[in-house]
Write a structure and sequence with these properties.
This protein is mainly α. The protein has one domain (about 25-85). About 70% of the residues lie in helices and about 0% in strands. The chain has 2 helices and no strands. Helix 1 runs antiparallel to helix 2 (about 60-85). The longest helix has about 30 residues, at about 25-55. It is elongated, with a radius of gyration of 16 Å.
């Protein structure tokens, strides 16, 4: 995975560099972490949209809110994949 960093408001360091998982335990751990991590980003998007709206750009705010829906759907699918793996 590639590494990225950026500044924003939430309560964890934001550096990404995970070695490829080598076994199911590592797959489950990484997928669980990803679900939690992505949820924090999805929670930020409505706040960002509101800031953009307050800055006078309704079109961009609407796009960010639409993207939030895609984040939510992606997060739901990741959670379903995690549960499926745990069941097998």
């Amino acid at each position: 995975m590639s590494e990225h960093t950026h500044d924003h408001e939430h309560d964890h360091d934001h550096h990404h560099h995970h070695p490829a998982p080598e076994n199911m335990e590592q797959v489950l751990a990484l997928l669980d972490y990803t679900c939690i991590h992505n949820h924090s980003h999805a929670d930020e998007l409505p706040k960002l949209a509101e800031k953009i709206r307050n800055l006078g750009n309704e079109d961009a705010a609407s796009m960010v809110m639409e993207a939030a829906g895609f984040f939510d759907r992606g997060n739901d699918l990741l959670q379903e994949a995690l549960e499926s793996l745990k069941d097998h």
